[in-house]
Design a protein that fits this description.
The protein is of the alpha/beta class. It contains 14 helices and 10 strands. The protein folds into 2 domains: about 200 residues, Spore Coat Polysaccharide Biosynthesis Protein SpsA, Chain A; about 70 residues, no CATH class.
Length: about 350
């Protein structure tokens, strides 16, 4: 399977060299190409990338310099262009790997990220962490919330796995973002490419995979370290979240443990009904109660083509009904972390595989 690592880059002259050096150091077991799309740059990002190609002659590097029109001159447009060009290099049976121009992959990252795809998975996602020095330099409230939120998201993912797939032994985490993501060209084409959204295109792409019932594998061994800069290059992203965390943990609200349990149990009930592809009246009532739906918001899941599309439809109907948010208001992250830990212990949470 041909592998192409795609990197959208806009004014990343200071960081692109380290990103490419980390790729050159990969102890991969298969050759790969790297495609840097330097879009709308006013610095020498492209020149720095080409300099890295001279420094690391074994790195099969392609550099595209483009000026996107104003309505496409953003990370969504650049990543879409990178994926499309990468797809041509990889071929129909290839793999597209996404990372960012301010991120550095650890040794063995590429092998760990593409291994699940060789085993039949259509996509995989690794861990993304802040560079240690930059994390330690963050203001104290931001650093505190970052650590609490990271712990909360990880243990929440474990709780969800315990309820949805209690016998599963594969690792789990909550991250599936553009800095550390791989998918087959086949899967990318199956969902129609990168969704046309104003931001958070990586989340939208993973949602499209879920909607199409294309499985994604979460791996802990494929890690990248990324910038902790507070001044971001996108309207919504990690930097905006870091900025929000200045208010401290008491003002960072997330779903509580009991909401997570209710959501996972509702999803599990949907899976049981979906396997039968029909719902008897008693199951319809149980689904409506689990998802907190009124009769007006009922969804005919048997008319939907995939489990993922049924799940998306029920989530939308749940949000429109309004009863869910009234029953489960968000709570401060520290409280939520304690709740989830307690609940997970009740589910026998000591046996989770996280590595």
């Amino acid at each position: 399977m041909s592998i192409v690592v795609v990197i959208p880059a806009r004014n990343e002259a200071e960081t692109i060299g380290r990103t490419l050096a980390a790729l050159a150091a990969q102890d991969h077991d298969q050759s790969f190409e790297v495609l840097v799309v330097a879009n709308n740059c006013t610095d020498d990002t492209a020149a720095q990338a080409r300099a890295a190609a001279v420094t690391y002659p074994t790195l099969r590097l392609n550099v595209m310099e483009v000026t996107l029109p104003p309505d496409q001159a953003h990370v969504v447009g650049a990543r879409r262009l990178a994926f499309e060009a990468g797809m041509q290099l990889a071929g129909s049976g290839g793999i597209l790997v996404s990372t960012d121009a301010d991120s550095e992959a650890v040794p063995g990252w590429l092998s760990a990220l593409v291994a699940p795809l060789r085993q039949g998975w259509e996509a995989s996602a690794g861990r993304i962490q802040l560079r240690r020095a930059e994390r330690l330099a963050l203001p104290s409230p931001v650093r505190t919330v970052y650590l609490l939120d990271t712990g909360y998201r990880q243990i929440a993912a474990q709780l969800h796995r315990r309820i949805i797939s209690p016998t599963a032994t594969r690792p789990t985490h909550w991250q599936h973002f553009g800095a550390n993501l791989a998918l087959t060209v086949r899967a990318y084409q199956a969902v129609g490419g990168l969704p046309d959204v104003p931001c958070l295109e990586d989340i939208a792409l993973v949602a499209a995979l879920e909607r199409a019932d294309l499985p994604l594998y979460h791996t802990h061994t494929a890690r990248v370290y990324t910038s902790a800069r507070l001044s971001g290059r996108v309207p919504v992203g990690l930097s905006t979240q870091l900025e929000e965390w200045h208010s401290g943990p008491e003002r960072w609200f997330v779903p509580g443990g009991y909401e997570l349990v209710a959501a996972a149990q509702a999803e599990q009930l949907l899976k049981q009904c979906w396997q039968e592809r029909r719902c008897i009246p008693e199951q319809v009532d149980a689904l409506r109660q689990a998802w907190r739906l009124t009769k007006a918001c009922a969804v005919d899941i048997s008319a939907l083509p995939t489990l993922g599309s049924a799940l998306e439809a029920l989530r939308l109907a749940r949000d429109q009904a309004g009863d869910w948010s009234a029953e489960f208001p968000p709570i401060p992250v520290r409280q939520a972390l304690l709740e989830v830990r307690t609940i997970l212990a009740g589910y026998g949470g000591g046996g989770f595989q996280t590595r």
